[in-house]
């Protein structure tokens, strides 16, 4: 059994070929797709965060709006780039969104990926300390965020406050109990997956990973998940962690699917460099008739290891078509694989 959700990057472009031509379209359609996905029986609505791009950016207004329009579906991110974040303000935003949703937020965070501009976090007022990389800065922001999420008081109260204070040191408000157990780390390397396990975060592993062994993507990703779970066990945490992977998967069940995603030849992993030093492997997409798709997915070792699968959706094709994509997986593929 697996939880199955969708992951949207929220692309928009003024092109006549796009169903999502403005930032407003991207936001409102994201809410509508979450509502539709919940009605179809999907488990999660997740959104990617990119700055300086025609994509979804500030996540918390969207998460709160989805939370107000839905009842049961998990609402998350995959991922928020912590290099850009004020950890304490983020605690307030995340707590508010979680309370509005009734405790359904699943917040994916990470050090982020290469962005649209050079060192974009500098424009947000952040700069690594002397001798620290931007990736290390992102991890330090994450640690400060996790610490503040605990809800412990740390701020000295004003002896003459505008409003009465509770006794003792003050914490950030609103505080949402339990949110700290619903934070995920987007890990591209085995080492950061192990680090996330030690800190008690769930694991998000996407369709991109540092190429550490030269093996196929799904094999490397499965090994990363196993290393994460072993580190979690060694850390002695009391709860069971969750692990998600994301995939582009399309069941070809009608002429629209075949027109958009029907391909000749076999899809394969690809390799490239996300910066001057980091060789990365990108996982393949899946698009086939349902029976063939089931056969292909049976061989994906990382999906087998994960408890949550996020389906990356082509959001510019519109809400109706993306709901169809999700429904086709839930109806024709998930039951045959024992996910439902």
Outline of this structure?
With 340 residues, the protein is of the alpha/beta class. It contains ten helices and 13 strands.
Please write out the topology:
Elements lengths: L2 E6 L14 H18 L3 E4 L12 H10 L4 E8 L5 H15 L3 E6 L23 H16 L33 E4 L3 H10 L2 E4 L2 E3 L6 H19 L7 E5 L1 E3 L3 H7 L8 E4 L5 E4 L3 E3 L1 H9 L2 H5 L2 E5 L6 H15 L7
Parallel strand pairs: 1-2, 1-13, 2-3, 3-4, 4-5, 5-6, 6-8, 8-13, 9-12
Antiparallel strand pairs: 7-11, 10-11
How would you characterize the overall build of this protein?
- The structure is a single chain.
- Helix 1 (23-40) links the parallel strand 1 and strand 2.
- It contains ten helices and 13 strands.
- It has helices spanning 23-40, 60-69, 87-101, 134-149, 190-199, 217-235, 255-261, 290-298, 301-305, 319-333, and strands spanning 3-8, 44-47, 74-81, 105-110, 183-186, 202-205, 208-210, 243-247, 249-251, 270-273, 279-282, 286-288, 308-312.
- Helix 3 packs across helix 4 (134-149).
- The mean pLDDT is 96.
- The radius of gyration is 20 Å and the shape is globular.
- It is α/β, with parallel strands linked by helices.
- The strands form three sheets. It has an eight-stranded parallel beta barrel, surrounded by six helices.
């Amino acid at each position: 059994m697996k939880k199955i959700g969708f992951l949207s990057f929220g692309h928009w472009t003024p092109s006549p070929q796009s169903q999502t031509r403005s930032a407003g379209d991207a936001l409102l359609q994201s809410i509508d797709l979450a509502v539709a996905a919940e009605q179809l029986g999907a488990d999660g609505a997740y959104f990617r965060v990119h700055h300086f791009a025609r994509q979804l950016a500030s996540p918390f207004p969207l998460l709160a709006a989805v939370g107000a329009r839905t009842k049961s579906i998990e609402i998350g991110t995959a991922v928020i780039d912590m290099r850009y974040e004020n950890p304490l303000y983020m605690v307030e935003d995340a707590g508010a969104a979680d309370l509005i949703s009734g405790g359904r937020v699943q917040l994916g965070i990470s050090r982020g990926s290469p962005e649209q501009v050079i060192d974009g976090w500098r424009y947000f007022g952040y700069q690594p300390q002397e001798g620290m990389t931007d990736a290390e800065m992102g991890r330090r922001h994450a640690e400060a965020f996790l610490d503040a999420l605990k809800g412990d008081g740390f701020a000295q109260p004003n002896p003459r406050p505008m409003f009465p204070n509770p006794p003792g040191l003050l914490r950030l408000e609103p505080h949402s109990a339990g949110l700290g157990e619903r934070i995920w780390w987007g890990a591209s390397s085995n080492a950061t997956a192990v680090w996330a396990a030690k800190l008690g975060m769930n694991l998000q592993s996407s369709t991109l990973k540092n190429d550490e062994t030269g093996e196929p993507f799904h094999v490397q990703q499965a090994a990363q998940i196993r290393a994460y779970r072993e580190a979690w066990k060694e850390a002695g945490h009391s709860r069971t962690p969750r692990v998600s992977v994301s995939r582009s998967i399309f069941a070809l069940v009608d002429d629209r699917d075949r027109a958009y995603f029907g391909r000749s030849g076999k899809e394969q992993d690809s390799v490239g460099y996300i910066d001057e030093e980091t060789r990365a492997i990108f996982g393949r997409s899946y698009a086939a008739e349902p029976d063939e798709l089931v056969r292909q997915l049976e061989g994906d070792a990382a999906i087998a290891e994960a408890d949550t699968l996020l389906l990356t959706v082509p959001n510019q094709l519109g809400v109706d078509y993306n709901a169809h994509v999700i429904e086709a997986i839930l109806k024709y593929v998930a039951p045959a694989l024992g996910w439902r």
